[in-house]
Amino acid sequence: MVNASSNPYRPATLPPFLSASATPSTLSHSAALSATSSAITPLPGRRSALTAVPTSSERPTAAQLIEAQSTTSRVVKRTGDIVFSLAVLGLGSPLFLMLAALVKVSSPGPVFYVQRRIGRGFRDFGCIKFRTMRKDADLMLQALLDQSPELKREYGKDFKLKADPRITPIGRFMRRSSLDELPQFLNVLRGEMSVVGPRPIVRDELRRYGRRMNEVLAVRPGITGLWQVSGRNNLRYAERVRMDVAYARHRSFRADLSIILRTVGVVLFPRDRGAY
Prior knowledge:
Oligomer: single chain
């Protein structure tokens, strides 16, 4: 057990892929270098967010990695998540109610869409978003993929479609502005997600992470994260995986703060068309 007096989740020198001046190419390259390491190595000049893990020939499990995290780092991050989420939900409640009303009147169906995702320690949870698609979206997707081999290849590559006919007009706006993710602050309060972390993934995506999935699932998934501020839809899936692994290995308070500030810039001044 780590001494609680040493807090690894403290301001530290940021790795290149978390610096404010990093470009998408720098981010991809640095994240790739991080992901190729078979061990969890602390950054120079600070303690790792993880204590020593078993040095056997097998990679440590997610449960072992969670157990290796210091109590102080977990408490600091969890406290920050709760305070930040309460502030956003409190100050943003008028916007929250307005978006809920727009979703309700714009198309038939519920206000929220809950999708099963895999979280910390391989725990299954319901990820909450404002509904941005037609209520029969799942059935419609299967029909689209059955009818078009091209769409099936596109969806199999990144689990999304660029010109998705299932998305409603108000849903398209919310996706481009990331406002559809506001309800995920409820997931944060419930302890299922963090403000900053790897992407919350569906079960079918686990195979894409291979042997590295234990590292990613040792931390809570985030509303925002490294890949969201580093090109988002312009990144290939493999690059997203590398960035998730890089964040899991090098997370710190300063890294989280940097990502949050950059997220504000991405939402207000998007370089791409946002989520689709």
